[in-house]
Design a protein that fits this description.
10 helices, alpha/beta, single chain, globular, about 350 residues, seven-stranded mixed β-sheet
Amino acid sequence: FENNTLVHFDSHPDMLLPKDLTADDCYDKSTVFEKISIENWILPGAFAGLFSTIIWVCPPWADQISPGVYNFHIGRVKGKDEIAVTCLESYYISEGLYSPLDKLDRVRSIKLIVLKLDEAISKIDLADQLQTVKQQLDEVNHFILDIDLDFFSTLNPFVTLYSDAKLYQDLKQLYTFKPVPRDLEHGEREALAVQFGEKRREMLEALGSIFSFLVGEENLSSYEGPGEQYIPTVSRIVDNVRKHYPRLDIDWMMIHDAGCTFDDSELPHHISSKQEISSLISSTEKLLDLLGSTPTIITISRSSLDDYCPPHQVDDIQSGVLSLLQIKYARLTVHNCYLDP
């Protein structure tokens, strides 16, 4: 139950934190299960000590975190019951989740290894990254294999949200995050990361308040609250959406959620061909061969009901992945939990 290695195949890192999850919540299973969702279930486990090494295996089109090895810490922010990390990647800064180490207590170390998988995978290409993984597996003799089927083909479900109003491009302009420059001294990067993170958090909270107001109001003329500087831009978005969808009950909070997916990148969107899917399954097999160990448990997410894995492809992808696993791991028992009533 401690010091596990998680090998996570996915088009998305899934390594954020729920907004309302406290440090103490992470030790209460029922509370954690109530608060986590598909994009933020891994780090609560890391804070609780379940995961110490996380290998995110991503496809060629995913770019939320660059390939490499990241050693950082996760802990509780002193004086608060919030969780934060010391990783200086935009993926965390843009969510307001960065904190300097001296501001944290109850600290744990995390090793994050990001591997980008393509058709040309070879042992030589991954030698440096895999060496640390293999040392960890040799030490504890087990790992968790987690496969999200949108690793093989993925949709950004927000690309087509109210598309007649060109909503996606308008949200991109409003929400996109300016990253902290990488060519700075470490101390300067840390200071800017704190500053940028606080401003980003204030921005997202303000926009959340504005879009929440629209749930019960026709327009923003009577809005009083944070983020008044954003009112003209949001009002133009509101008018444009209402113009193109006059008879629809608009889901304003979904629009805000779509905006929150932008930082200095956006959610990956790549509908793979049958050949690409087949090639990625072959590369997956090669990588599992290189790991050289048998996982203790394998979890698979279909991600089709939320449209992250194209619904018309998910069954074929699942069939291919299960065939690979059943050939590779002889003692495999498959539970189709998604079919449970």
